[in-house]
Amino acid sequence: MTNFSANNNQKEDVVFNKFKKQLEKIGLSIESIDADGFIYVNIGETDLKVSLENVRRNYERDFDERHIADLVEVIVQHSFKIEDWEQVKDKIYLQFVPNDFEFENIINEKITNEFSKVFALNLNNGFSFITNDDLSDWKIDVTELEKQADLNLGILLEKVKIEFEDIDNHKLGMINLEEVSLKSSCLFSSKIRDLVENNIGFPFYAVIPVNDFCYIFAEEDFEYFSQRLGSVVLDEYNNSGYPITTEILKFSETAVEAIGKY
Prior knowledge:
262 residues; alpha+beta; disordered N terminus; DUF1444 domain containing protein
């Protein structure tokens, strides 16, 4: 299973030092760092390729060491190769990455010109992206993976609450969910219509600048909110280590499409 958490440009800063110490506490070590800043951690017979850039950006934003701990936890989980589909299937979800991401062997599907969805194994709110090799190990195909991810999202939606704020008689919805990194993923569940239709109707619009942040609003409120959410969307997008898109998305029965972007 291939884990990617960032992109490039590694240096020995506070995040690197904390990351190195946490690895050493669990008996792992950094094998090397390449010219692009990627860190290689030896796991069994392979070196896991890791970058700290996104973790560093999130740490600098809120000084929360959990960003580092979550990455280390993903690496720990990665070290225990799980080949039994029955053991992992209830942990399969969606995540989203910009289209310039280096997908390599990672299973992905383009959503808009800006971003794609990937399938991920959820490990304590850290994610390990699923590859074609994983499907081979699990003896399943992409169709079964898709169905399982949607099943898991449907179960997750049973815990979701959408809180609506009334702004000048316009409803702005925010997803309340303990698993914050799956907020945006919830919108891609086949059951999302059941959750929103009685409140704001269907189709509806959304912005998902990052995985843990999204706003939703009604089709009739498109003009109102599209003119007012730009600064918030850009702030979230620019200050997160895991940006997705600044597009305004329309969710309908047949597709998810970008209507415009900030």
